[in-house]
Amino acid sequence: MKQKISISISFALLVSVGAWGQVLKITDNELLKSSSLHWYGLDFSNTVIFDVTQIGRGERLKETAFIEWQAYFNKHVSDKKLKRWFRTSELIDHRKIFYNSYSKLDAKTLVRGNNGSMKIGLDIDDESHVQEVLRDMVDEGVKSETLVKAPVEISISYVDSCVKSYDLQESSGLGAIMIIEKMSKVDKGTYLVGVFFDIATRETLFIIRDKGGWDSYGFIAVYGSGINDGVARVGDKFRRKVLTQF
Questions:
Q1: pLDDT > 90: percent of the chain
Q2: Residues with Cβ < 8 Å from 24, sequence gap 6 or more?
Q3: Is 12 among the domain residues?
Q4: More exposed terminus of the chain, fewer Cβ within 10 Å: N or C?
Q5: 14: number of CA atoms within 13 Å, CB side?
Q6: How many separate domains does the chain show?
Q7: Distance between CA atoms of 218 and 162, rounded to whole angstroms?
């Protein structure tokens, strides 16, 4: 008589594309229509990398990769290009302020195995089938010990707290920063939260979560291209939403 085995298997939970390109907050504020934009660049202080091939390399990535990603962005995204993306006549560049934002990351939790996990209970009669399923998971690069419980998403309240904590020299105007949320090999994209805020009050006026697609070769260039594409997408959607909303 075969013994009935009940097991719980974790597997990658991919976030649907529909969840991205999503406006999380928009405020009816004239400052959003400003022809001048203070650009604060990329905030890596909350970034998580989902790539099983990089497991155990958190310290090395923290020491080198973020500097290279920032350099890649600077090389390919000029102020002129940013002005076009955000459709602004004046862009005041303060990106250097956040060059070291990655230093706040914990190297031990920086790299994860997959975007998330879901528990599924399976009743399997044959123990050999259990081993076959587990082997298939490993072949696909899924390692149960590296899975996380849920997709990483930064909340609006957390974004608000980040903006209030920024040490900025400017006292007024419209500010913009891109919080790099996660970089995922699983679904070949870089996810970011675009934040536009009132510098004087630190109130967030427009928040959008979006995904930048990969379009290059090599580890730094592949992930970096996702950042560049994500910023371009945020800029385009920001102006289109502002122009049509008000």
A1: 59
A2: 156, 159, 193, 207, 208, 209
A3: no
A4: N
A5: 10
A6: 1
A7: 32
CA 145, chain centre distance (Å): 23
123 in a domain, yes or no?
no
Name the one residue in this structure whose structure tokens are 């390919």. 76
CA–CA distance from 111 to each of 156, 184, 185, 198 (Å)?
23, 10, 11, 33
User: E strands within the chain?
Assistant: 5-12, 22-26, 36-43, 48-50, 90-93, 111-112, 117-124, 174-184, 189-198, 204-213
Of 198, 128, 120, nearest in space to 166 by CA: 198
d(CA 127, CA 135): 13
Burial class of 217 by CB neighbour count within 10 A (0 to 12, 13 to 18, 19+) = exposed
Contacts of 110 (CB under 8 A, 6+ apart): 47, 48, 49, 58, 61, 62
Domain region containing 78 = 20-115+152-245
Distance CA 86, CA 63 (A): 31
Could you read off the pLDDT of 21-34 as tens digits, one per residue?
Answer: 789 999 999 999 99
Instruction: Give Cα separations from 19 to 14, 24, 211, 226 (angstroms).
Output: 11, 11, 10, 17
pTM of the predicted protein model: 0.77
